[in-house]
Amino acid sequence: MTVNYKIWFSLNIMHEFFNSNSFTDCSLEPSADTIQTFFNGTTWLRRSIDSNLLVLLKADDAGLPAVQVAADKFFRFYLTCNNPLFFNYSNIDARIGKGYILYLSNLAANKVDPLLNLSVPVPAFSSYPAGNIFFPGDLVTDAADNVCECILQSTNNLPNDATHWFVRTTKQYVSSADVLRVSPANYQTAFTDGISSLNTTIKGFKVAGNAVVEYNVFTITQVFPNAVNNVQVDLSSLQPGRYKISLSATKASDSSVINQNEIIYYDGAIGFKKAIGIVEIFNCLSTTDNYALQQNGSNIINETAYTISFANRIAWWNYIARTNTVTGINSTVSGLQFNQDALNNLLFVSNIPVQFVQQFIYTPFTVLGPSPPPLIPWPSPNILKSEKDINGVTTKVFTETYLNY
């Protein structure tokens, strides 16, 4: 007897540091509820190949599911990283791993041919208010849908300003738009003004037809005898998942109402597994959706391939000579040159930032001065530093390489 399986979906993790090739520094692990729901028998299987996770389903000879797939069920995976240098060579929000995670799903609606990205669209530059401060590593899209990266702290500098922005491509990446706060069992938040009472509504997300909609889980009212700024809400009764916290507070000084909302992720296993992200794949999508798991009309399994893309780190390159016999750095990259610092003649600073990649395709640089001119090493993401303003805020990211000349 022959048993057929088809790929229900695949998840491919890509990274520019590895020249868009597969890499194994990150992996995807199913949550306990996902194992219980899908992977306890032989109807569903999962296989990992390099940076690809394949989820397979029993199918008949026509390519139809051999069992009815429950539309109200969905998959949850922990995205983990086993290389601490990942945070050096990746453009990733600095909050990740510090009480925040990436939330990625097939509800992202971010298809950029041919990729079905699980990250939401990188926000448009025009969506930010005038005067917004952008920091090195921030990603935006310009009017032509190019993803642009801030390379120097910027305010009101358009993405076509090459001094402050680096233009990548129209390819989409994981960005700060995908970040959610992880809440412990005691959700905590603070109000600038003292409050006398607080109504909190916890909203969950559930499948309704082909959509995922909000619903009220519970509401709690708190009255404080004295004005407070810091409040806690008990979430310990919740199942792991994504929730919307809707707060309506009464200001103690004038009884005006303060409303605020926050979407959080609640799952005690995130810290235990040291996850940097959560990936949720929903079975409920319409067959006409770009991210559909089955073909429209026939319901044949699509073998849909989803993508998670990380951008590589961009940094300014600094070379530091040992002696003043070094008079310059001979660059072999078009447009890249190294300028001797006016205050430190041993320091040579790149005029533009350069992307970190695992294997550089450039001809090696040479040192000017010594004879014969020696080849010098490429900068390493192991050594990453930042310039900060008087408030301690990063204005520029750079790497340093010390030369033995």
Notes on the structure:
- With 405 residues, the protein is mostly beta strands.
- Helices cover 4% and strands 47% of the residues.
- The protein has three helices and 29 strands.
- The strands form seven sheets. It has a nine-stranded mixed β-sheet.
- It is globular, with a radius of gyration of 25 Å.
- It starts with a strand and ends with a strand.
- The mean pLDDT is 92.
- Fraction of residues in helix: under 10%
- Report the portion of residues in β strands: over 45%
Average pLDDT rating: 92
Question: Structural class per helix/strand content?
Answer: mainly beta
C-alpha end-to-end distance: 71 Å
Tally of contiguous helical segments: 3
Give a brief description.
The protein has 3 helices and 29 strands. The chain is mainly beta and 405 residues long. The strands form 7 sheets. A 9-stranded mixed sheet has the order 2-5-20-7-15-19-18-16-17. Strands 22, 24, 25, 26, 28 and 29 form a 6-stranded mixed sheet that branches.
Blueprint of the fold:
Layout: E1 4-15, E2 26-30, H1 32-38, E3 44-49, E4 52-59, E5 74-81, H2 86-89, E6 90-91, E7 100-105, E8 110-112, E9 115-117, E10 133-134, E11 139-141, E12 147-150, E13 154-155, E14 165-167, E15 179-182, E16 186-208, E17 211-234, E18 241-251, E19 257-266, H3 269-273, E20 275-282, E21 304-312, E22 314-320, E23 328-330, E24 338-340, E25 347-350, E26 354-355, E27 366-368, E28 384-388, E29 394-402
